[in-house]
Design a protein that fits this description.
Length: 392
Amino acid sequence: MTRPCKRAPLLLAMGLLPILATTACSAAGPDTAATAATAAAPASTGERPFTATEVSRFDQPWAMTFLPDGSLLVTEKRGKLQHFDIASGAKHEIRGVPKVAYGGQGGFGDVILHPDFARNNVVYVSYAEEGTLDTRGAAVARATLALDAQGGGELKDLQVIWRQTPKVSGQGHYGHRLVFGPDGKLWIGSSERQKFDPAQDMGSNLGKIVRLNDDGSLPADNPFASQGGVAAQVWSLGHRNILGIAFDGNGKLWAQEMGPAGGDELNLIQRGSNYGYPIVSNGDHYDGRPIPDHDTRPEFAAPKVTWNPVISPAGLIFYSGTLFPQWKGSAFIGGLSSTSLVRVAFDGDTAREAERFNMGERIREVEQGPDGALWLLEDGSKARLLKLTPKA
């Protein structure tokens, strides 16, 4: 199983020469070890301390979020939003979903709740949308979730509050992961759409982490607010393909991203920082040509963990439950090409891979349930929804 990639032109920023990236993608096996930016992490393939129980199946699921009543919203990449009643096993499609540009890595993306959902029933969804002249880009919309007595319902008053700028050709690297922070702001991981240069271009919001008010307006205290335009959205730049974004228990923002060959990253996201892509990376181009490492350019923020061989990270949470007390404060990342669940441990701002569990299938999404169980979504058609609970 290989990580998703497509042929794309590499037009490097800062005056570097144009290069063509190949279609070959690095794939990591389920038992490969990770390398931390600060210290080597052990290979961790021990016995699972959990039982994985299949709960349901979905068609190309991409994200999930729990509602206050314990039921689930699950997005399916082709453009469906499912409401799943875990207790009864009933599944109902939610109407009113925006039209998605399905294909390649594009389609329906994330779904999260407004921090005050219990009062306002507002949800946020991300998706790929069509542009003109065979272009596409990610969009984020907010809407009111109106459920009916049968478990179905619709999204009402849907309003698009953010779009990737510009829309470009191709069907890769949308990113569009969403999270609300402790500050009540909406944070968006906007990938560089396999176009490289935009990650360093402040006239574009590609390759950036974006921070907005809950209605899509711009916070006055964003680091580049004085520049106006698209730059006023940006919190950090120099990112590649952000497929997980989450706050830890101390309110610090972390993001993982698929890097080039041998360059997957976990980053501590700091105000106004530049993470260097495509100028630096701890990986190399897919055709084997090197990219300068982060330590050659100390002005760029270096990752806290890098993986070589890659894990192809997807989904990111920080565990805060009591069902697995030994894991409180750890991060969990799904692995696509590595077909794994990866646990990352922290000591202050230092991080390392602590354990890796071979799940046997590509893992697209990770969430923590209301009772502290871990929930996983596999990737692809007939993908299983798994509930992980401690072994007896």
